[in-house]
Amino acid sequence: MTNKDKINKISGIxxxxxxxxxxxxxxxxxDSVLGFSNVMMLYVLMPSALIWFGTRKNGCGSxxxxxxxxxxxxxxxxxx
Length: 80
Description:
Elements: H1 3-28, E1 32-33, E2 36-37, H2 38-54, H3 76-79
Antiparallel strand pairs: 1-2
């Protein structure tokens, strides 16, 4: 597992936990969960979600996409 994969996993888990804390606070009607305001938790959620999005493999927005070109199929006329 490369460093990029580890960062992706960590930021994804942090994003999910932070989102669930915000949702629990919203559903229960609490303005603060874990001593922080729900709005302040967005300061943790947004960067971690952006880091997760930027480090995904072969996904939209990732810089590490592989461009693999397959050889053209010679029997294309026979398949139609």
